[in-house]
Amino acid sequence: MKTKILFAIAFAVTSMAFAQKKEVKAIEKAIKSGSYGEAKSLVGAADALLSQMDDKTKSKFMLLKAQAFLGVDNKNVADLTKAGEAFKALMGTKMESEAKTGLSNVVAALVNSAVQDQNTDQFSDAGAKLEMAYAFSDDNRDYQYFAASNYLNSKEYDKAAAIFEDLMAAGYTGQVTEYYAVNAASGEEKKFENKQERDIVVLAKEYVKPSEKLSESREGLITEYLISIYSFQDQNDKALAMLDTALEKKPNDVKLLTSKSNIYLKMDKKDEYRSIIEKVLQIDPNNAELHYNLGVTADQQGDDATAVKYYNKAIELDPSYANAYNNLGALVLRKDATFVDQMNSLGTSNADFDKYEALKVERKANIRKAVVYMEKVLELKPDNMEIANNLLNLYQVLEDTNKADAMKAKIDAMN
Question: Which ranges does the UniProt record give for the TPR repeats (predicted)?
């Protein structure tokens, strides 16, 4: 009786092993025929037998499972994730070499798909795929950096900040060695894709003076991104702390100082704001963009006189600064609403009529001041439809038929 029981158990084990190998062979056959959909559908049945497989069968099954979900030109993130996880499970086994190759293919598929998403403005999807690419890569943090950049574009600020913070903690700079040489005939320096390509042309004496340089660090950009995110989310203390750390390395960096001044302005700390601005102007007194930005800041505070001063200074430094002319015109036109309100509030008496006519003259004089600025903007930006329409409206208010007709014809041509 005892012998019969042992025989029955042995028979059951043999049958189970046969079933396992049968399922695995079916997957292998489907992959060889290019039927990846069928191969994926067969994985489930074999997966149920995984715990009972011997090591050799288990490794073979995991490799086939990974290959089934990887497929050819697969862009499905769920499939690629399963493939990557299966390949990773084979690390440290006799199939490690195949697993490494498979993981490289998974990463390439994820990155290629992410690039396509970026090109169609599907930034969130691109970010998720690049994060997954990093998880399956050999600690290539470039994928993290580009994932965070995509999350920034998709306005998923928490996700972007978490990755940027991780990169900073890891000391990531994104710098790589770049290979250069000088063209022997032209004397122009050229950057090569890799050292081998550069060395070949140097050996052929087509190029001379080989050199190596580090690419630009991404650390500054990451700092700027995090400061912007913290500021946008009103985490002003975090933004200021990061700015202080960055300014320890670059105490006279105009961009960092301007960012710090803007945060103080947002916090209504005007003394701190002015202190930094004075320092910035000492460092870079001829920066037209800086004066323009200071004009915008004063404009937003309702300090029209200071705004005009800075806008004019920006134009003095850069006569082609269209936005400064535009903002000066907008400042002048701001008074127009007051004229209209006063004119509409008047009655029908002779005195009111005289006052109306006087206000009408003042209003037109004010509009003419604005028109000078707006015309300059259109001169600098002749295709700006918004400015063209604004000028048309202003000419009509001024009852300048000739200019209105000419602008109407220009707008029709632009359309």
Answer: 288-321
Q: How many helices (H) and strands (E) does the chain have?
A: 20, 3
User: How far is 338 from 348, CA to CA, in rounded Å?
Assistant: 19
| Alpha-carbon distances of 145 from 47, 164, 224, 225, rounded to whole Å | 35, 7, 13, 11
- Residue with the two structure tokens 């795929």: 129
Q: Residues near 80 by Cβ (< 8 Å), separated by ≥ 6? A: 69, 70, 74, 106, 109, 110, 113, 132
DSSP states along 244-313: HHHHHH-TT-HHHHHHHHHHHHHTT-HHHHHHHHHHHHHH-TT-HHHHHHHHHHHHHTT-HHHHHHHHHH
| Helix (H) or strand (E) segment spanning residue 162 | helix 157-169
Instruction: List phi, psi (to 5°) of 311.
Output: -65, -45
The pair phi, psi for residue 211, each rounded to 5°, is -145, 165
Q: How far apart are CA 117 and CA 249, in angstroms?
A: 37
What pLDDT, on a 0 to 100 scale, did the predictor assign at position 389? Answer: 93
For 261, what's the count of Cα atoms within 13 Å in the CB-facing half-sphere? 21
Non-local (6+) Cβ contacts of 323 within 8 A are 292
Tokens of 63: 């490799």
pLDDT confidence band for 172 (50 / 70 / 90): very high
* 8 A C-beta contact, residue 311 and residue 327: yes
22-36, 142-156, 176-190: range with lowest mean pLDDT: 22-36
Summarised one tens digit per residue, pLDDT across range 61-72 is: 788 888 888 888
Q: What is the pLDDT of residue 45?
A: 66
What interhelical angle do 288-300 and 304-317 show, nearest 10? Answer: 160
Residue 318 has pLDDT above 60, yes or no: yes
pLDDT confidence of residue 10: 41
Whole-angstrom Cα distance, residue 397 to residue 365? 11
pLDDT digits (tens, 9 = 90+) for 177-208: 999 999 999 999 999 999 999 999 999 999 99
Query: Residue 111 in contact with residue 133, Cβ under 8 Å?
Result: yes
With 80 as the cut, is the pLDDT of residue 54 above it? no
Q: If you ran DSSP here, which 8-state letter would residue 73 be given?
A: T
For the record, the structure tokens of 279 come out as: 């320092």
